[in-house]
Each structure stands twice: as structure tokens, then as C-alpha cells.
Amino acid sequence: MRFETSQHMKLGQQMKLTPRMIQSMEILQMPLAELRERIEQELESNPTLEITEIDPESRQSSESEESLASSDELNISEDGASDFARLDEYSATNPDAVENTFDARTKSTDYADRAPRAASSGDRDAKMDAMSQAPARSASLIEQLLDQWALSSVDDRIRVLGEVIISSLDDDGYLRTEIEQIADRAPQSVKEIEPTETDWEFTIQAIQLLLEPVGVGARDARECLLIQIDALADRAGDDDETDIDSEALAIARKLVAEFFEELIKNKLPKIAAGSGLGLDQINTGIDTLRRLSLAPARRLVDDAPRAISPDAVVEYDEDDDRYLAYLTDGRLPDVQINREYAKMATDKAVPKDDRSFLRKNLSNAQWLIDAVGQRRHTLLRVINAVIDEQRDYFDFGPEALKPLPMKTISDRLGIHVATVSRAVSEKYLMTPRGIVPLRSFFSGGLSTESGEDVSANAVRAAIEDLIESEDKAKPLSDEAMVRALKERGIEIARRTVAKYRDQLKIPTARMRKQF
Q1: Does residue 507 register a pLDDT over 60?
Q2: 425 with 378: CB under 8 angstroms?
Q3: What residues does each domain of the chain span?
Q4: Which of 17, 111, 229, 416 has the highest Cβ tally under 10 A?
Q5: Model confidence over 298-346: pLDDT tens digits?
Q6: Does CATH number 3.40.630.10 belong to domain 445-512?
Q7: Interior/surface letters 406-421, b for 16+ CB within 10 angstroms, e for the rest
Q8: Lowest mean pLDDT among 147-156, 162-171, 440-449
Q9: Which of 241, 240, 218 is closest to 228 using CA atoms?
């Protein structure tokens, strides 16, 4: 075998993504809240971009009367002006698809007519007002617990050990790390005091007793529940503190302390046989346990469900018998390029370095405006295509969903399937049937006995419907659901039912059984 090295020339064309094209894709993929934050960051860092206030009526008039100006008017950057053309080519976009329907208030570069005059010294700064709305960072779980610990009445030795243990808690407030590992990783200043195993154990108990919420510092779910039950028992006699009676607490404690494994497996008859309690008493204890938390520390952090801002609203038009969609991005900061800076960028009396700085920022500002406009246009086209394909969903509900591959939408619109995927990522629609993820309209499916296609989401909806209407004393097994679905004309394997049930976070029939 002989190895050789040589040089040769080859002529060819190759498409490569520039950083701006990648950023354009990111803008398309961003949900509304992230896009708002992205625009606010650009407002803060780019002096050539500013907020403008436009009356809705004048905005509508300008959109219908004004044509879109070209960014060549400023001679900002040829590269910036051609980014979207190359992105469309890369995504196999139909060149006729992108029409002049972008919002004129963001697309236009007629700065002399559209940019506001410089504000007087007494006016409010709209840019600063927008940035001041950003919420401050809230304290983390560990920071809040350490603040509580700093106010506790313990000696210095225990206080130092407590800081180490608190720093080892997980997001639920559990101490899942063994004491030996915590001691090995402790700072040298802690090791120098040579804490004993008793010191560590006493510190853990102090954390469990002194810190709020009750249950923080537990080492497992069983201990967490027992700590909360004991805390409630101490206050059970005070009507202002709790409405749980002592008997219910005693039953709950017995269930957790002596029959925890049977309890989590829903083996209530076995618990009744071993405890001497009746099923009614056991259910009373379980009702008490449902009021406790298996993740107590979550109360200290802002883990409330993220507020969803629908990207579009779908409404039914009775006159035309069709569903119409409109975007909700009117809450985005209304931005434009500052007219004065645009003039300075072409004024040769301005120092060259300053003009270069301004031209760079003007290019970035124009790119952001164009990217937001392209996002609006693409997103609305995708949503309207989805509405047309899934009309039955809006008329009849989730069980009427049809299989819809993203390629169907991409072929219909003449865009790349990756563009469709980015357009629907983390986007939500407000529909007559509630707020739903745009991505939920895309799924594979299977055929019914009649030969019609039904989507996987529709099958999941059918499974949910079966479980909601089942006899709780005799819940449906996966095999029974297969038969019930077959009666509805849906042929499906038992393992597929089990997979969909797991995806819906629905427990097995044995765990759903109520005694």
C-alpha cells in the first residue's frame, strides 16, 4: 500500500449558512415572549433602533397605502439586504411566496417621514420605559433557605454544617446525597472542625424542624410525608391552623409509617388486612395525604406554569363558513430606525469611525426589523394552511384530528420542511376549543376499519375519553381499551395503547382502581 499527497482544484457551488441566516431561523423559532425579550435586548444595545408609537388607524392606513421601501436607500449593507433571499433559497422557498405584505411600520426604511423627532428633555424615554418592565431575578431556592437558616437559633458549629447541607438539597427540597459524600466534598474550613456523624444527623433534624416549607431536608418521600404529618398533628387542635382532625392524621401516619410500599402500589385490601382498618378509614387517610406535598421546596420557587401567550387567534367567520387566524404580536415593541442616525451614517462630515459604527448598527437594526416581518409572514401562512388541513378538528374536536406530516404543509406552501418545524416550535393558538400548541396538529396516524385516517392525537383523545367514563371500581385494562377502541372503528395494538397511556401520564388499571 502506498500513500500519496497531491493538490488539485475543483470548481463548484455550495450553500453555506451565514451567522445572520442562522439568527433569522432563530427569530422564526422564537415564541412570542422570547421574541419580545430579543427585541428589548436590541433596543438596549443598539442606539439606532427606537420605539415609535403609531395609532392603530393610521397603521392600517399606512399598510394599505404605502409601498415597502428598499434598504438600499441607506446603503447600509449589501449583505444585510440579501440575507433573507439566501435563506429562502436555502429553505427551497417559492420565490413568489414572499409578497409585499409585511407590516409597513416595521419594514419601511423611509426614515425621514416615519421616524419621530428627537424627544425634548422633558419627555419620557420610550426605550427606557420598555426595558424597565423586565422583571427582577427572584431569589433561588438555596438562597431563600440559607436566609432562613441565618436567622435560626443554632450554635456556630451546627450553622456551618447546615449551610453545607442546604447547598446539597435538590429542587424538591430533598437531601438525596449521602452524608459521607457531603462530608468529603465539604470545604476545608468545615473539615477542620471535625464534625461527627451525630453532628451531621442533628443538623439534618434541625433543618427539618426549623425551615419552611415543612418537609424540606427529608431524605425520601416517606420521611417527607411523616415530617408534614407530625407538623400538622402539632397544630391539629387549633382550628385557625388546620381543618384536619387528629384521627385522620393518625390513620395517614400509620399508612405511611407501616404500609408505605403497599400504599404506593394501591394494594388497599392488603393494607386493610394487615392494619385492621376499614377501606373507608384508609380512604380517609389517603384523602389527608393528598393535601400534603411530595415536593415541598417547590413552594419557594416560582414554578407556576409558564404563562402562555398565544401567537395567533383563530375565530369562526359565520358569513364565509370558515376559520380565520390573526397574529397577536401587536404587543411587541413597535420599533423603527432613528432618522437622525440614518442621516449621520451617510454624512461625510461625520468622522469615518463614527459612520462605520452607525452603519454597522443600522444594518443590525434593519436586519432585525426584516426578520420580524419575515417571521410574521411565514407564521401566518403556516397557521392558515394548518387550519385548512385540520378543519374537522375545529368543527368536531380532538378526536377528529387527521394525520398531518409537516411535509404536507411545506409542499403546499413551497417552503422547506425545516422552516415549518421552526415556525410551529413553541407556538400556541387560541381557538374556540381552547389554547392548543400549534405542533399538536402535526402527527402520524393509523387507519380505521372504514379506511379513514385518524391521527395519533385523536387516538390519545379517545383513550382519555374511555378512562374518564370508566367504572372507577373496575377500571379498563389496556386489553379492554383495545376492544373498546375497536368498537369505535380504531384498530390498535395493546402495546400502542400502553405507550399512549404512558404519554398521557395515566397510571395502569390497578393503580386507577378505587376501593
Answers
A1: yes
A2: no
A3: 17-115+308-442, 141-299, 445-512
A4: 229
A5: 888 765 556 788 999 999 998 889 999 999 887 788 889 999 999 999 9
A6: no
A7: bebbbeebebbbebbb
A8: 440-449
A9: 218
